[in-house]
Amino acid sequence: MKVTIATLTLAYVLSQFYRAFLAVLAPLLAGDLGIPAEALAQASGWWFLAFAAAQLPVGWALDRIGPRLTVSGLLAVAAVGAALFATAQGTGQINLSMALIGTGCSPVLMGSYFIFARMFPPRVFGSLAGMVIGVGSLGNLAASAPLAWAAASLGWRGAIWGLAAITLLAAGIIAAVVRDPPRVPVRGEGSIFTLLAMPRLWPVLAMMAASYAPAAGLRGLWVGPYAAEVFAADAATIGWVTLAMGLAMVAGNFAYGPLERLFGTRKWLNFAGNALLLICLLALALTAGRSLALSAVLLAGVGFFGSSFPMVMAHGRAFLPPALVGRGVTLMNLFGIGVAGLMQMATGQIHAALPGDPRSAAFTALFLAYGALVALGLALYLPAQDRTD
Fold this sequence. Notes:
The protein has helices spanning about 1-20, 20-35, 35-55, 55-65, 65-85, 90-105, 110-120, 125-135, 140, 145-175, 190-195, 200-210, 215-230, 235-265, 265-285, 290-305, 310-315, 325-355, 360-380. The chain is mainly α.
């Protein structure tokens, strides 16, 4: 089982890379293919929406088929998408490739969570879930300064070709070494509608929808255009800013599990962390354009406090019946990833609707949009029932 978890965690490194690499490549794609930031926001949105659309089928497949074939088969689709990206000549191919990559990455994290939920005590689910994301965030780091270096040395096409080959190799390794948990009886286990009929899940789904999008959207794309358009930062500087935010996200993912054990609550830990996320977003809106260093610190705060995903997942996991674990964790992931994709497209429209100088006005509106989402999520999460196992 250790080999299985290690292999799936390494595959999640790739998933994290693919959701974040456009922030570094944005200036290069604008120069080479003439693709503006708002068009790349649409492409990033297609990654998230394709990822989200696959969640319910992935949940069914995890429960019925198991993680080995589910993850390996779809990860091969991500390799095809990366190859298409490396050959892209325009916006249409970029959009299609991002959708294929998103579909291919859709089962990787949930495959790990499915195994944790089925094979480990519930009380350690949050810590294990955070560990996978924390280690997987190395992919987020690789999609910062290291990617900027690789793109400068090999060209952005050569760098992505290399990632396509690595992704295909990872799919083959998963098919060879991952072991599925024992099956559970499936008669009368219910369906996705059984989960939606559980009122205790609704506030958790609202928090999942609101908490994941800001860090994912800003790190996944907007850090690059913000630094370039407002502060005239070059690719290397953008790489360092995204690296700082990525390191903060790694630290945040590792921090939430121990904090749960320290304070003995999931609900109020999630609430407090996302309240601090809201403060960072409002501070970004109020200070947009003043200082790249200050913005980098606040973006790191967004990354750290916005890493509550595994703890929100652990909160919802505590209410799931055993036979519906796969569908339950993917339902929660659907809300997180789906809203992140919609927000990427919405913020792309905000960016396009506020052209000209000062460019900071567009990003002020963008930060406020993410802040409004988090504020709404906090309000809907207040009635949640706490559960710590």
